[in-house]
Amino acid sequence: MSEQELNKFGDHVAKTGIFAGSSPGMAIASMVMIIAFVIFTVWDVEASNEIFAAGKKIAIEAMGWLYVLVVNVTLFFTFWLLFCRFGDVKLGHDDEDPDFSTFSWICMLFSAGLGSGLIYWGIAEPMYHIQGNPFMEMAGTEPLTVAAGASANLVTNFHWGLHGWGVFVVVGLALAYFSYRKDLPLSMRTTLYPILGDKIYGFWGHLVDLLCVFGTIFGLATSLGLGVKPISAGLANLGIMQDTQTNQLILVGIITMLGTTSAATGVGKGVRILSECNIWASIVLLLLFFTLGPTTFMLAMVLTGFGDYIWNVIPMGFWMNGDPENQWQSWWTIFYWGWWISWCPFVGLFIARVSKGRTIREFCFAVLLIPTSVVVLWMSAFGGAATFTELYGVGGVVEAVNNNYAGGVFTTLAGFGFDSLLYPITVLTTLLLISWFVTSSDSGTLVMATMMSMGAEHPPIKFRVFWGITSGVVAGVLMLAGGLGPLQTASIVAGLPIAVMLIMMCYGIAKSLHEDFPHPDVEDKRELEFLKR
């Protein structure tokens, strides 16, 4: 943290001692909260699971309408930002240029917002939905058919597309605008500044940051703990190691070490380089799928996927299942919205951190439309390859996914029939899974350290190392105790108050933009620039 920042936030950031460069109160409160929840969870996993499940039932089943409302409001608000007269406003001072090239910036957006889920859920989710979903039933489509495969891809694209990324846009834009335009701390409390004012430095600000710390650390830990399963499955297919809990714990340790090291080097080095490598390797994997797989069928599914998504995304976004006995929407769509919302403080803060100097229109376009386009391309291609293998190839993909969602991608690869290339492609896929998880770990570590340092762009290395190790330890402990499921549920429940905050952020952004840029001033400025040209 710079001397200027230390002077500005001197009442909140320690200048000496073990907590130098961070907020002692926030750091201690965060650790007490984390330790208490971990102990509570592992002490009696069944009891904690029942309590968290009850909270989840309220958040997802009783308040599911709120999640649906919020993701739609944020999506339409994002489109308004994209086309409104404030699009040329910079996320920073007018003379500031972006810190990163456009390619590096987009690579880091993907690394924070998507990660390894694209690889295994690109196969697993369509294979779940091809067996049945409400949209198939309403259309009278038979399961395990090409039409069912197209429907499955549509549902998958819907869950990974515009609505989720719209949430990230709102959080990231609020943080970037108020932090870089108004010189406020890069912390979640800042997003509510138009409403709370200087109260963000008091109790309410601390509460907001603690809630986001909870969602970030446990979301990251559960994702890491659950995400090592496909990596372990890939290494088992390669004959390198057995798919056991001990080996999964070793993988958690390795990923944590690599992620912490990357975070310690900073955004401009480790995080950026890893993100760019991930994108290039992912492009290679996608091209291999198109080359070795059923190319014509996959291209047809991609075109169908784009058309179906564009045509159906809005009505699907507002659809609510009125049948109280049918839990599909709660299990899938509402759960996804809760996960996107609980994940948005982490992703939004990281996106804001790397977006300094971009305009509002450029930011909305890159964070909303580019990732969604890639998602539809990727999911439709992978889902199409799995559908062809299941229906016209050797089959077994649905069975593999039903047994272990992580195994679907490797079963699909084996179904292409290129035995001599199976081993190197499996190696590439497994390494890519590891690399994506490392980038999720390092970006999450940077976010945690940033929040604890009251928004410092370059938090002390010791805190990056501490929070990186902490996330790995929490993941390992919960894996051993069987507590990943309950904590994942708790993270979703934490998304309920964040959903309310998102509506407040939309109001705060619109309010500040209209106050900072009254209509006549904007018109005069554009007219002057036109005359100069």
Which descriptors would you attach to this protein?
533 residues, mainly alpha, 22 helices, 78% helix, disordered N terminus
Short account of what is shown:
The protein has 22 helices and no strands. It is mainly alpha-helical and 533 residues long. The longest helix has 35 residues.
Question: Please, could you describe this protein's structure?
Answer:
It contains 22 helices and no strands. The relative contact order is 0.20. By secondary structure, the chain is an all-alpha fold.
Strand tally is 0
Query: What structural class is derived from the secondary structure elements?
Result: mainly alpha
Report the span from N to C terminus: 41 Å
Low-confidence stretches: 1-10
Number of helices: 22
Q: Which shape, going by the Cα principal axes?
A: globular
